[in-house]
Write a structure and sequence with these properties.
By secondary structure, the protein is of the alpha+beta class. It is 35% helix and 18% strand. Strands 1-2-6-3-7 form a five-stranded mixed beta sheet. Strands 8-16-9-15 form a four-stranded mixed beta sheet. Strands 14-10-12-19 form a four-stranded antiparallel beta sheet, with helices on one face. The longest helix has 23 residues, at 363-385. Mean pLDDT is 81; it is low at 18-25, 227-231 and 406-426.
């Protein structure tokens, strides 16, 4: 079992992390990559047999992948990696880009875990081969990179993918530092433009087709599914991937029915012409599917975190506590074992607010983040060199993938509508 040692203290006191890898500033790929290359060029990392930095991964200019390890340079000897995901984009609040969702802390946490694991493995893994990756995944707030990376196979075969996100603590959970077994809901935004036909109000008003009629009909149709909507933008949320796709089919039918009933045509946006291809009139953002937390990884994380200055870290939230969030890390957990752990840095300010950005910049939040990162580092070490543990993690994931289907039981207790469960939000 990996234990807290001087590696944790050295990471906790490192000036670059202490200054907050850009506490309030927008993090950049270049600054993170430069730090990683410099840090792992020191004498402590001379034993690395492999070290590669890939920029602009899968065509994403602001993405990167840093791959390190110790293993023989022979065919079929490359071990499967343990991956840390990094998010670093800011949010525009009041005309300024700030870290209103705490992604600066995700950078600190993932790098802390990555470096803690690397240092420990270099010193204690002996002849056991191991491999770690740190992947920079931009644009999580809008059309994130992780679904693309999952489709391109970046996570396929990985022993596990780790990350933790700061949040406001729910008001009903008492004294708690965070939870390991944290899930999410699926989410996708679709939009369309209803195009009517203009006509002179006095000479031939009967020739006009009012696009607003279609918008009202779309509202009435969608309101049967759920109370809220946007006229041409619909944010669809459901408990799982399968329920999301089922609900999207119904929302599409509502939009199509509104267009037919009103006589309007549909197109993706105001700048495009009405398409000839009937399937090309909806703009769809990338779907974020539900996080499937890996049980064995979460159990180890919950056991480990209290030893790293997070004494009240828990395995999961109390029964009945609902945290309705969406993240593209969910797409990763369908490609390999993974988690999207939570740690709490405030009781007051919600994510996506200027107040949360202030909290994410203070020293207490930074200390909690490095503790969270080191705890993830412990899990990474066990995943990297303990084949029995890695096999159990893989089995858990395979069992989850077999279990997940359109008929799975509701986790959140929402009301079933026409055979499926879901939400539609503006």
């Amino acid at each position: 079992m990996v234990v807290k040692d001087d590696h944790f203290e050295s990471i906790k006191n490192h000036q670059y992390l202490r200054l907050g890898i850009l506490r309030r500033r927008k993090a950049t790929k270049e600054k993170i990559c430069d730090f990683l290359v410099t840090f792992t060029s020191s004498k402590s990392y001379l034993k690395l047999s492999h070290k590669t930095l890939e920029r602009s991964v899968c065509g994403k200019e602001t993405a990167f992948r840093y791959d390190i390890g110790v293993y023989p340079n022979t065919p079929n000897s490359v071990p499967s990696p343990v991956i840390f995901n990094v998010e670093y984009d800011g949010l525009e609040i009041g005309g300024k880009v700030i870290q209103a969702c705490g992604h600066n802390l995700i950078v600190v946490g993932s790098i802390s875990g990555f470096l803690f694991a690397a240092r420990w493995l270099l010193e204690y893994a002996g002849e056991t081969p191991w491999r770690l990756q740190l992947i920079g995944t931009p644009s999580e707030e809008d059309n994130g990179a992780k679904p693309l990376f999952a489709e391109q196979g970046l996570y396929t075969g990985a022993r596990g993918c780790l990350m933790a996100h700061p949040f406001r603590k729910p008001t009903t959970v008492g004294d708690i530092d965070g939870v390991a077994f944290a899930n999410s809901i699926a989410d996708q935004e679709i939009s369309t433009v209803f195009e009517g036909v203009p006509a002179h109000s006095s000479l031939n008003p009967w020739l006009g087709v009012n696009a607003l009629d279609a918008a009202v009909l779309a509202y009435n149709n969608i309101s049967v599914l759920r109370q809220q909507y946007a006229t041409i933008k619909v944010d669809i949320r459901a408990e799982s991937k399968d329920q999301l796709y089922a609900l999207k089919t119904k929302v599409r039918a509502c939009l199509e029915g509104a267009a037919k009933a009103s006589g309007c045509r549909m197109k993706k946006n105001m700048k495009t012409a009405v398409p000839n291809d009937e399937e090309d009139y909806l703009h769809e953002n990338i779907a974020y599917i539900d996080v499937v937390p890996n049980k064995s990884i979460c159990q180890l994380l919950a056991k480990t975190a209290p030893a790293f200055d997070l004494p009240n870290y828990r395995y999961e939230l109390p029964a009945g506590t609902i945290a309705v969030i969406s993240t593209d890390q969910g797409n990763v957990t369908y490609a390999c074992p993974g988690i999207h752990a939570r740690f709490y840095i405030t009781n007051e300010c919600s994510n996506h607010t200027a107040g949360f950005a202030d909290v994410a910049a203070n020293a207490n939040s930074l200390n909690k983040t490095i503790s969270m990162g080191a705890s993830l580092g412990v899990v990474a070490c066990e995943l990297a060199v303990d084949d029995e543990f890695a096999a159990q993690v893989k089995k858990d994931w395979e069992d989850d993938m077999k279990r997940l289907d359109p008929s799975k039981t509701s986790r959140l207790g929402t009301t079933e509508v026409n055979g499926f469960t879901g939400r539609v939000y503006a």
